[in-house]
Amino acid sequence: MRRLDAALAQAEATLLGVLVIAMTGVTLAQVMARYAFGAPLIWSEEAARYLFVWVSMIGAALAARQGAHYALTALVERLPARAARLAGSGALAVSAAFLVVLLVTGINETRQAHLQDAATLPFRMSLPYAAIPVGAVLMLLHLLAGAMQAARRP
Question: For residue 28, what are the domain limits?
Answer without folding.
Answer: 2-152
